[in-house]
Write a structure and sequence with these properties.
With about 140 residues, the protein is α+β, with helices and mostly antiparallel strands. The chain is built from three helices and five strands; from the N terminus they run αααβββββ. β3 and β4 form a beta hairpin.
Length: about 140
């Protein structure tokens, strides 16, 4: 066997991260993570925090705005998903029944994370407009 058999088995060793395509992929990945984090922060600040400050602005006939407990839970969930690197929602909306929904649409798949007025949390996933998954998370 050769003195350094690893060279014979795997070829010449070289620093993979020195390759231009790998560096570029890492930069793109980092940029995307920063963009995702900024999008989550925007939804948290623009929607959830504002609703918490002035939930009366959401009140209308037959429309129940989320209360502070639901908004607090939505903020905690949003911060957790942001910190885990989850892609941000396409939109964050009050559901009209005292809850909040995070909705994401990507191609023919849409997902809705619903935080209900009773603080239960449910995930709905639709493929081609058909319910493909329903999970109660809290």
């Amino acid at each position: 066997m050769l003195k350094d058999s690893s060279v014979a088995l795997s070829g010449e060793r070289r620093l993979v991260f020195a390759e231009p395509h790998v560096r570029e992929a890492e930069l793109v990945k980092r940029e995307r993570a920063e963009e995702n984090r900024a999008a989550w922060d925007s939804f948290i600040d623009r929607c959830l925090v504002e609703w918490g400050r002035n939930s009366q602005a959401l009140q209308d006939d037959d429309f129940i705005p989320p209360d502070t407990d639901v908004i607090q839970l939505a903020c905690e969930i949003a911060l957790g998903m942001r910190d885990e690197g989850v892609a941000p929602p396409t939109m964050v909306v009050p559901d009209g029944e005292g809850g909040v929904s995070f909705e994401r649409i990507e191609g023919n798949v849409s997902a809705s994370l619903n935080i209900h007025a009773d603080s239960t949390v449910e995930l709905l996933v639709f493929e081609d407009c058909r319910l493909s998954q329903r999970r109660h998370l809290l």
